[in-house]
Amino acid sequence: KKKIAVMTSGGDSPGMNAVVRAVVRMAIHMGCDPYCVYEGYEGLVQGGDFIRKMAWNDVRGYLSEGGTLIGTARCMAFYERPGRLTAAKHLILNGIDALIICGGDGSLTGADKFRAEWPSLLEELVSTGQLQAKQTEPYRHLNIVGLVGSIDNDLSGTDATIGAYSALARICEMVDYIEATASSHSRAFVIEVMGRHCGWLALMAGVATGADFIFIPEKPREDNWKEEMCQIIQKHRDWGKRKTIVIIAEGALDRHGSKITPEMVKDLLADKQGLALDTRITTLGHVQRGGTAVAYDRMLATLQGVEAVKAVLEATPETETCFIAITENKIVRKPLMAAVRETKQVAKAIEAQDFDQAMSLRDTEFSD
Ligand code: F6P
């Protein structure tokens, strides 16, 4: 029987449990034995009880749970070859040669590196006497399939990462709450949202809540952004609006690569010589990442989890490491490293202040 392991890695995101459930149950459905690696790469390095065989009932109720029930961790040991060597040994001792990993671009890059190194790891396990050649023989290739779990929606080549729509829904809900109190006092709120180097959450939340002004890293404002923002907000106030909402991505920059902070925006809105608005800052923080997944993420995670198991079963030694994407509403397999490379290019373009390039590399909804 083929043994397929699933793990979650990096920052948790809503929908990761749905991935685990789908992989476990699809693996059983296809006649395989499913395993969970607990605590991400840390569990691979630790072995023992961190790698557990799963049964159908073990994932009951997973669809409606937030976070990741099998845990996740940032594992320093896996960054070093000795850590990966131990991880390889633990997989072989458990009879596992297929790994489905749900995480962000960093976690998936680590996975591809592990796969590329696999033959030399086996050699070293044998040459150092940790395993016998005949033990490694059935495991010549490590098969890895990635699923993108991240609230940031920052991976190129897929329209949605698992968790992004849940975080967006949470942000909208929180902005609605804030609007009630903002309106009551005729106040302004500067709301910082997550996303690391990606402005998707801020942009979509701005659209979905009708915010007065937004800041995202991919499209910094012109140098006159202060005057522009104040003019727009004054206009909205003149039209009778009693609340002002400015959404700022945590990675927001100006055209020269300097960070735009919520404090800077607040000071401007509150400036007695200018708009003189009673202004508060709200940093939404990890409420954006916690809580249960919205229906879209449960559906996406389930369909992609099923596809990941199919990809594992159809893979040959020549198959390039793939990840499961969604494009134009279709669940598709795509080469992992090309997507990771493109994602890194966006960050580089932002760093080099080549914003046109950054925008063109982001998915379609950013391009206007
Ligand atoms: O990548 C997901 C994310 O929530 C980012 O939006 C944010 O910058 C980061 O993780 C926060 O990481 P941590 O939970 O380690 O503080």
Please explain how this structure is put together.
It is a single chain. Helix 1 packs across helix 10 (295-314), helix 6 (164-185) crosses helix 7 (200-209) and helix 11 (336-351) runs antiparallel to helix 12. This protein has a 7-stranded mixed beta sheet, sandwiched between helices. Strands 7-8-6-9 form a 4-stranded parallel beta sheet, sandwiched between helices. The chain contains 12 helices and 11 strands. With 368 residues, the protein is of the alpha/beta class. The mean pLDDT is 95. It has helices spanning 16-29, 40-46, 81-93, 105-127, 133-136, 164-185, 200-209, 225-238, 262-270, 295-314, 336-351, 355-361, and strands at 3-8, 33-37, 51-53, 98-103, 143-148, 188-193, 213-215, 244-249, 279-283, 322-327, 330-335. The N and C termini lie far apart (50 Å). Strand 10 (322-327) and strand 11 (330-335) form a beta hairpin. The structure holds 6-O-phosphono-beta-D-fructofuranose. Residues 11, 104, 150-152, 194-196, 250, 289 line the site of 6-O-phosphono-beta-D-fructofuranose.
